[in-house]
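**Folding the chain**
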Amino acid sequence: MESQIKRLYEGMFVLPQSFVREDQQAAFDMLQDLFKKFDVEVKHLNIWAERSLAYEINHVREATYILTYIECTPEKVAKVERAVHISDNILRCLIVKPEPRFNLEEYAESLIVVEEGIDEEPVAAAVPAVEVAATAAIPAVEVAAPALEKLDSEEVK
């Protein structure tokens, strides 16, 4: 039995850079069609980054990451993931629930602020879950840096 409760999900889709650069609108349309096929409502869809991959995936070394926010039932997320696995144009995808404190409206506003060139800090709650996961190791480095500086200064004395 399919759940009727729709939830917000954050999705990161990795596509070949050459495919997206060739026709960005076609890449967006492909994702929109995929979501429409499973009756998934798209709240946000935008290019997040272009990066070199750590290893080749299907003979591709350069990729474009597309960040999406979608609203659907958990069962439909599983259907979208299955469809992605058989797609030739999508290398990888990850769909997760954003953190409870995440606010899509604040995130969208922070994007507008950045695009307009207004020099403001984006709201902390507006950081996507994938960015939080990618920077999870930073606090350990920040904690270790002052300790290393202290050791260096003691050696000088």
